[in-house]
Every structure is written in structure tokens, then in C-alpha cells.
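User: Could you check the structure of this?
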Amino acid sequence: MSSENTPPSALAGIRVLDLSRILAGPYCTQLLGDFGADIIKIERPNHGDDTRKWGPPYLKDRQGEALPESAYYLCCNRNKRSLAIDIGKPEGQALIRSLLKNTDVLIENYKVGDMEKFNLSYAQLKDEFPQLVYCSITGFGQDGPYARRAGYDFMIQAMGGIMSVTGPQNGTPYKVGVGIADIMCGMYAANAIQAALLYREQSGNGQYIDCALFDSQLAWLANTGMNYINSGKPAERFGNGHPSIVPYDVYPCEDQYIALAIGNDGQFERFCEVAGMPEIATDLRFKTNTDRVANRETIDQIVGDATRSRPLQSWLDDLAKAGVPCGPVNTVEQAFADPQAQHRNMRLTMPHPDAYNEQVELIANPVKFSETPVSYRFHPPSLSEQGDSILKNELGLSDEQIEHLKSKSIL
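Assistant: Sure, the predicted C-alpha cells are below.
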């Protein structure tokens, strides 16, 4: 997996035991894996991560038939080796403890109290493994009135406030079109784990990390949440608009829509010049951003009437020259086909021996390191694809011992 010519990875030498499933935990460990960590994904025998079956679409085999790996599963499980273990049985728990002897990080997203029933909670492991960084991801955290409730992205978006500010101004609240509560919690967890590893480097001590989807969603409210905290006024829905910046919205062109992100008065003046209405920039109702926010509906109507007069590409060309932030409202297909996305290599092809054309298409990691580049070493694994090799090479089990464990449904 490495050679003299292979650039170093930032987290090379770090091993992560991943007992998580669905999205938040697997997204976290995929990030760590992209940065070089060795991820062993622990899954339920004969079942695996729930998202394997969250399709269609599914990865296709060489005959064009669906493999048991959905596109959802593929989005967050590369750079991992899969091992199926039933941690509900003592023999499975013993295997986990054996793996922990050479493990830096354990991450899990079981319900509060479940890991204690499996004899694998942080309290039950910390004395035996004092350098272990242990991260739990749950819907609501390890304490509080909702701690034992299950948490899924959609309900967390609803409870965490983001849906109250997403959607048409006078319409129904909307969730974000991607599982952002899960994704952001996974990113917070990955960041926290790396901070804990730095602390361990200094102190020699591991620690426990408690990450909650609900907490992450509240934190992700950012300026919208701060606007409420500092004003006491409930946040409003503005559709595609911005509560504090105008014009900052989607406007109709002759053929398509354009997203205008006019963030200051100078940009507004230049937009008005390109639009052939310089007098609007000096109108006292619109001269400053504060003025435009106060007269939002009027200026939005004026801008929309102007943009309708020309096709999208004409606006994009002229506004780019004038330094006015804008862009097309792309479909997902158009976004990946965009020259910038292609230049930045945001689509990734990896070898996959079971897949059609023996390859799988993935979304690349967006981080560009100068010294420790992201590495892509393992395709998203089939269930327990590396199970026997891990048990043999990491734990020294014989073929007979492995077959015995399989006969007892431990593996």
C-alpha cells in the first residue's frame, strides 16, 4: 500500500475501529480514511450496514445485475476494510477487545446504553485501553431528556430549527435536500477525533467524545441562530433570499435562472451598470444594503424584471467581467459537468473487482493537501470482504478457528 514514491498521509499509522452505520459515523470515518487512517468497518453478519439496502440505485455487477451496495452506501464507505462480527455475543465482544489492542480510535452510533450491554462502553474499556479515543454519535447525546430517543436526519432537521428557515416565505417548511444533520455531525466528529489524537500525543491519554446530531444541527444554524439569540426575534423564511443581504436570491432569465449573490454596495452598483439601470444604484431606497433590505420586495421585483430581458449566459459573461458574484442554478448533472468541477477532479473512479467494468464512480474528497494528499486505497467494501484476512493477519486466527466462529454465527 505504500512505497518510497508514495506521498505520506496525514493520519498514516492511525487505526480506527468503526462500529457505526447509516451516514454520520460512516461519513466521519471515510474522512479519516481519506486522510490516511486505517479503518476497519465492523458490520452485522449476514446483514451489514443498513444503507447497503437503501436503494435503488445500486452498484451493478458485470452482468448488469444489482449488487448489495446501494449508491447511498457507496457515498460514505470507501477506504475501509469490512469485517462482520456479532458484538451481541461474548465471542464477538472478545474479538473487538482483541482488535482494540492495536487500535487508536473506536467510533460507534448505537443507542445510549447499548454499548454497555455489549460490555464495550468507554467506561468498560478505558482502564484496559487508556490511550483509546472513543467517539459516540447519537441523535441527542448521552444525557438530557431525549438521550434515549432514536435520531434520524429528517427529524433532527425539523427539531433543530433549520426547516423553519428553509422553504418559501409563506409556504411549507422544507428540509435541506441532503442529510446535512448527519453530514455535519460526522464532520464535527472527525474534527474532534483528530483534536483528541493531538491531545493524546501531548498527554498520553485517550478520552471520550460525545457527539449529537441535535447539537450539531443547532451549531450549524450559525449566523441565523445568532441573529435570534441577539435580537430575540424569531427567524423568518426567505425562500432563496437572505435575511440580511439584498439582492441575494434566484432570479429568472430569458431561458433559465441565475443566482445573484450581491454582497456589498459596490457590487450592486456594478450590477446596475451591467443591467443598464445605473439610476437604481443611486435611488435612496436602494443606495445601501440596509436600504435594500428595508425595500426587499421592490428591489427584488426590479432586479427580476431586468434579468428576464436576457439569456442566462449573457448575464454570466457580463457580470463575471464586472466582478459581480453570480452563477447558474445547475442540476446535479450540470454541477458535476461544470468545467471547474472537472478541473478539480471532483468525480473519482476506483477499481472494484465485482462491479461492471470493474470500477465504481464516487464523489472525491474536496480537501487538497500540499504535503499529505488524500489517498484512495480501498473501494467501498462488500460485506466482510476483508474479514478473513483481518482475523488472520491482525489477530492470528487460523482457518479452523475462523470456520468455527462462522459456524456459531459470530462472523
